[in-house]
Amino acid sequence: MDVTTPVDSELAVKQWYRLRETLLDLGHTVHELTPEPGLPDMVYAANGAFVVDGTSYGARFRHRQRAAEAESHRAFYEAYGWRHVSPTETNEGEGDFAYLPDAYGGLILAGYGFRTSAAAHAEAQEVLGRPVVSLRLVDPRFYHLDTALAALDDRTVVYFPEAFSPASQQVLAQLFPDAIRADEADAVAFGLNLVSDGRHVVLNSEATGMAAKVAAAGYLPVPVELSELKKGGGSVKCCVAELRP
């Protein structure tokens, strides 16, 4: 995100392909979003929508540089026959929403404070028909929920408490008393920007502390090198939009 820091574009592409191969090797199906000229942040595909039970709640990006991405995501979901709802409120898709289908009968955790408006949480609840818990992000280093919290399976989360307001920390502690708590080093290394299938946890290779924590909890960490994509402010989760039919 620092434009003075050079990015090795060739290496970035290689790292993206390695992430794709890793997901395929784990047995997952990967659909590719067709890139559009002039929209380099499309690589962070998680931000374009949030999907629950075959309905995609679309994005309305805060910054104009990314605004055109929303149309590409809408076209993608509609091409696959998904119900797509375009939002009226500012939100950045799965970057600020997480879904836990087995927690409290199906619960959405939603972040606000930097990229997504709190009003979008109420809109998402109406569109998706699931209760939404609003969590206020207070540290600008962790501007999306997916940089500070992740679902490890259908009812378990890992999060960095200090990324949230004191009240939101209390809510998380009450809802998830057995959650894994990350430290600042884990979060700064984008260790929470992960994708988990309930067994394998794909995460940034720099996040060695986070890998150790999830391994101790019984998950299998799968490190992937994403140094160049991290320079753009994203890691594993940012590059992956999870499809929930």
Q: Describe it for me?
A:
- There is one protein chain.
- The chain is an alpha/beta fold and about 240 residues long.
- The protein has a single domain (about 10-240), classed as L-arginine/glycine Amidinotransferase, Chain A (5-stranded Propeller), CATH 3.75.10.
- Helix content is about 25%, strand content about 20%.
- It contains seven helices and twelve strands.
- The strands form four sheets. It has a three-stranded mixed β-sheet with strand order 1-2-3, with helices on both faces. A three-stranded mixed β-sheet has the order 4-5-6, with helices on both faces.
- A hairpin with a 6-residue loop joins β4 and β5.
- The radius of gyration is 17 Å and the shape is globular.
- The model has no long low-confidence stretch (mean pLDDT about 95).
SSE inventory with pairings:
Elements lengths: L8 H17 L23 E4 L2 E4 L10 H11 L3 E3 L11 E4 L6 E6 L6 H10 L3 E5 L12 E3 L5 E3 L6 H10 L4 E2 L2 H5 L6 E2 L3 E5 L3 H9 L3 E5 L2 H4 L15
Parallel strand pairs: 2-3, 5-6, 8-9, 11-12
Antiparallel strand pairs: 1-2, 4-5, 7-8, 10-11
Mean of all residue-level pLDDT scores: 96
Biggest sheet record: 3 strands, mixed
> Beta-sheet strand percentage?
15-25%
The total of beta strands comes to 12
Oligomer description: single chain
Overall geometry:
globular
The helix content, as a percent range, equals: 25-40%
* Number of helices, where a helix is a run of at least 4 consecutive DSSP H or I residues: 7
The second-level CATH architecture is 5-stranded Propeller
Secondary-structure element series = HEEHEEEHEEEHEHEEHEH
Provide the CATH superfamily: L-arginine/glycine Amidinotransferase, Chain A
- The first-level CATH class is given as Alpha Beta
Rg on CA atoms, Å: 17 Å
Query: Termini separation (Å)?
Result: 33 Å
CATH topology: L-arginine/glycine Amidinotransferase, Chain A
Order of strands in the sheet with most strands: 1-2-3
Uncertain regions spanning at least 5 consecutive residues:
none
Number of domains: 1
Structural class: alpha/beta
Family: Belongs to the DDAH family.
Keywords: Hydrolase
InterPro entries: DDAH-like
Protein name: Amidinotransferase
